[in-house]
Amino acid sequence: MSLSKGIWSTFNRRSPSLALRNKKLQKALLSPNLPEGPFSLKKRSSKIRYISPTGMDEIYPLAYQFLEKQSADVYKKIENMEKKCNVEQSDELKRTLTKLQVEAEENNPEVVYNAMFGSNLVDRTQPVYRHYLEQKWKDYGRMLIMQRLESLAVIPDTLPTLEPQVEVKMKFPCNNVERWIEPGDILSSNVTSRPPMLEVIEFEECKRGLYTVLVVDPDSPDVENDSYSTTLHWGLKNVELSNQDGIIDARKLVKNPDCEFASYLAPTPEKNTGKHRFSVWIFRQKKEIDGFREPVGRERFDIRKFTADNELHAVGAHVWRSIWDRNVNNVRKMYGMGEGRVFAREKV
Amino acid sequence: MFNSFKASAFGRFTRQFRLSFVREAHKKAGGSKTHMQDSAGKRLGPKKHEGQEVKRGQIIMRQRGTNWYPGTNVGIGKDHTLFALEPGYVRYYLDPFHPKRKFIGIVLGKEDRLPYEHFAATHRRLGRRVIKNTVASQREEEYMSRKEQLIMPDIMKEKQARDQKRAGKVAKFQNDLPKFVGDLSTEELAIAAQRMNAIDGFMRGGKSLEDGRFYATYNYNYETDLSCRARKEISEAELESRKQEYAELAKKVDDKVMLDARFQLCKYLDAQQREERKKQDIEQLKTLIPDANKPVDKRVREKAMELIDDSCFSLSEQIHLKRRFLKPVLPESEELLGDDKTKHAIVISRMNYDTRRVDTIYRKKEGFLK
Amino acid sequence: MFSRSKAGLNPEAQKVVTQLSVMSAGRKMPKMLKLCNEDYIKHKTIMKAWSVKRKQEKEAEERSIKKQYRSIREAFEDLKLASPKLFEKANEHEYGKRFPLEMRIPTEYPPRQIWYYDYVPRKRND
C-alpha cells in the first residue's frame, strides 16, 4: 500500500533515480506511519524505543497528496514548455524549463531523502538533485573556498578574481591519501609527489564540456629581481567532463594522454622560502584547444596572459600549500631536479 | 598669578586642543595634592614622513591606539607602534575598502602609490639571499629547531619499524607467491612481491582490488617515465620494453592470485566465479545451520566460520553472514532460559517497564556464541 | 540608595527563584524534535505543504483585492467620461471625513469594539 497514486509513482516520464532505491525505506516513506518501525535507526534498542510524533500519520498523507497534485500541475506546464522548446531553442526557455523541473520534484519526499542523506551518490543528470547539491555547496563549500582564496591572496596573486560556478574537490589517491583535501591544507612533499585526482561538480546541465586545468605556484623565488615568480606545475587541456562523470584522475589521463600539455611537477619548495601556495584553477573552454600560440614554459608562467590568449573562463579553484621538509630532496631526486638552493633564514 | 600665566601661555593651545584641557573644569581648587601630577611627554607622533626612505624594522609612528592603521608592508607592535616590514618609501593613504581608517604603508618603488590596484598581483619582495657557501648551506639545511630535535629520534624509530615491517611483508609475498604462480624468475618474483605489497597498501587504504592493481601499475609506469624523461637514466626504447614487461608480469600474476578480505594471498577468482562460490557457500551454510536461532556446537561453528572466511566474500559480506548464521546472542526462547539453579547460568538484570521492577533473567550458556 | 533586586532574598527564596527560572527557561525554548530520518522528511513535507497552502491562499486573497480595486477604478473612469459633474461630486472633499472609520482592512474576525456609537469627527481648528 502506498500513499502515492499520482505523478510521483509513475516512471514512464520520470527518471527512476527520483525514487528511493531501498524498498523498505521507500515503504516507510510512502506509508502514513512506519509499518516496520524506523528503518533508518540501526540499533535495535533505539528502534524499540522510538515513537513517531502523534498525529503525523493523519496529516502526512494529506500533505503528500497536496504536494503531489501541485507537482502534477507543474508537469503539465513542463509539457507545454517542452513543446515550445522543440519549436524554438533559446537559453531563456531552457533555463525556465530547468527551473520548472526543479520545482516539480523538490518537494517529493523521496527526492528530499536522497538529497539529504545520500548526497554524493545522487543522479547528477537530474536538475533537482543538482539544485540540492548546489544549495549544500553554497551553504559551506563555496564560502570556504572563497575565504581561503582571499585570505591566502591566491586572488589576486594568480588571477584577478573568481566567481565560482563549480565545486572542485581534490585528493591524492596515487599516494594512498584517500581524503578530500581542504582548501589551504599544508601537505607534505611525500603526499604531493604524484599528481592529484580532481572532481569537478557542475551544477548546470553539462553533457560534454571541455575543461582546462592549471596548477601554479606564485611563490617561486626570483632572486635576480628580488621578487617572486609563478611556476606552472601541471597543465591539462581538453579534459572532457559531464554531469555524471566529473572526475579527472589517472585512469582518464592514461586513456587520453594528449590532455596533458605540461606534465606534473611535484612541489619541492626550497629551504627558508616559506609556504608555497599551489593553486588549482579549473577553466571552462569555449572550443577545443589544438595548440598554443606560444610554447608554454614552466618558469615565469604568466597565467593571466595564458587565460586571455586561450579565451579561458575560470569557474572553480582549489589550493593547497607546501613547505620544505626533510623529504623534499628525495622528491627532487625522483624528478631529476638536482639539489635545491638553501636560502638564509633571516630576511634582509 | 598662576592662572593668568596659564591663560597667556596656553591660550592658543586651549583653543586648538580643547579636548585635552577638558579636565580643567573638574579640577579641584588650587593647592590640592593631585594637581601637581603631570607625566613627561611620551614623544608620540610620526617618526618618518611621506616619501621618506626606510629600512626594515624602522619605526614610522608612535601612537596611543590605532589612529593610524598598518597598511601594505607595515607591522604593528603591542603598543600600536607602526614599523616597516620591508625597506622602501613611506606612504600615508586612505583605502576605499575601509573608509573610516587612515593607513601607513611602504612601497617598494619610489614612484609607486598606495593603495595598489585592487585586482593586480601584489608587489612582493623576496628579501632573502641564497647561501652560496656549501658548508654553510649544508649546515642550514640540516638545522633543526629544538622541537624537531626532540621528536626526531621517535620519528626515525617509527620509520625504521615501518620499513622493517614493509620489508617483512615483501619477503613474505616473495615466499608465498610461488605457491600460486609458477615459473617466475628471481627478478620477476621480486617485482611481483613489490607489486603485491603496493596493492596490499592501497587496499588497506580503502581502495578496491581493481583500483589497487591499477594504481600499482600506474605508479610503476610513472616511476619508469620519470627515470626516462626526467632523470634520463634509460632510453625511450628501454622505457617501452620495461612497461611492456611489467604489464605482462602483472597480467600473469593477477590471473593467478589476489588478496582476500583479510589481505592474505589467495587464488584469483573472477567476478563470475566469485558469485558462484558465494552461492555454493551460502547453500552449505544453510544446510549446516538450518535454524540460526538454535544453539550450535563447536564443530559446526568452526565449519561455518571456515565457509564464511572464504576469499570470495568481502569483509562486510563476511560480517553480514556472521550476523545471519552465527548470532552472538540467541533470542530468549524457552529452552535457552534457566533458573537460579542452572549451572554456569548468565545472569542479566533488566528493567521491566510494565511492572516497573528489575527482573533477573537466567540464561543458559548455549544462548551465547562465545 | 542602590538596591540589587535579588540581594534581599533569603537563601530559601533564592533557591525557589532559581529553580523556577530554570523550569521556565525550558518552556521558552521549543523542544528539539528527535526524529528518525523518515519522520524528519515527513515532518519537512508537512511543513512544506502547509507553507505552500498558506502562500496560495495569500495570493488568491491578494488577487481578489487587486481585482476589486481595479473595478472601482474602472467604474470611476467610466463615471468621469459619462458625467464629469457626478464624478466631481463623488470625489468631493467632505468636511471632517478624513478616512471612513467604518472601512477597515478585512480580517477573519470582528473587531473587539464593533462600533463607535459616540464617534464625533474632530473639528478643524482654522
From TrEMBL, chain A:
Pfam families xref list: PBP
CDD domains: PEBP_euk
Gene3D superfamilies: 1.20.58.1180, PEBP-like
Name of this protein: Large ribosomal subunit protein mL38
Protein task: Component of the mitochondrial ribosome (mitoribosome), a dedicated translation machinery responsible for the synthesis of mitochondrial genome-encoded proteins, including at least some of the essential transmembrane subunits of the mitochondrial respiratory chain. The mitoribosomes are attached to the mitochondrial inner membrane and translation products are cotranslationally integrated into the membrane.
Family: Belongs to the phosphatidylethanolamine-binding protein family. Mitochondrion-specific ribosomal protein mL38 subfamily.
Localization terms from the record: Mitochondrion
Magnesium listed as a keyword: no
Alphabetical keyword list: Mitochondrion
InterPro entries assigned to the protein according to its UniProt record, in alphabetical order: PEBP, PEBP-like_sf, PEBP_euk
Domain of life assignment: Eukaryota
Automatic annotation (TrEMBL), chain B:
A GO CC annotation given for this chain: mitochondrial large ribosomal subunit
Keywords: Coiled coil, Mitochondrion, Ribonucleoprotein, Ribosomal protein, Transit peptide
GO biological process, one term: translation
Recorded GO MF terms: structural constituent of ribosome
Large ribosomal subunit protein bL27m C-terminal domain sequence ranges: 133-370
Localization per record: Mitochondrion
Region annotated Disordered, chain positions: 28-53
The keyword Secreted is annotated on this UniProt entry: no
InterPro entries cross-referenced by the UniProt entry: Ribosomal_bL27, Ribosomal_bL27_CS, Ribosomal_bL27m_C
Coiled coil: 232-288
Organism domain of life: Eukaryota
Family: Belongs to the bacterial ribosomal protein bL27 family.
Name of this chain's protein: Large ribosomal subunit protein bL27m
Organism: Eeniella nana
UniProtKB/TrEMBL annotation, chain C:
Keywords: Mitochondrion, Ribonucleoprotein, Ribosomal protein, Transit peptide
GO biological process, any: mitochondrial translation
Superkingdom in the source lineage: Eukaryota
UniProt xrefs under InterPro entries: Ribosomal_mL40, Ribosomal_mL40_fung
Gene Ontology MF: a single term: structural constituent of ribosome
Cellular compartment(s): Mitochondrion
GO cellular component, one term: mitochondrion
Family: Belongs to the mitochondrion-specific ribosomal protein mL40 family.
Official protein name in the record: Large ribosomal subunit protein mL40
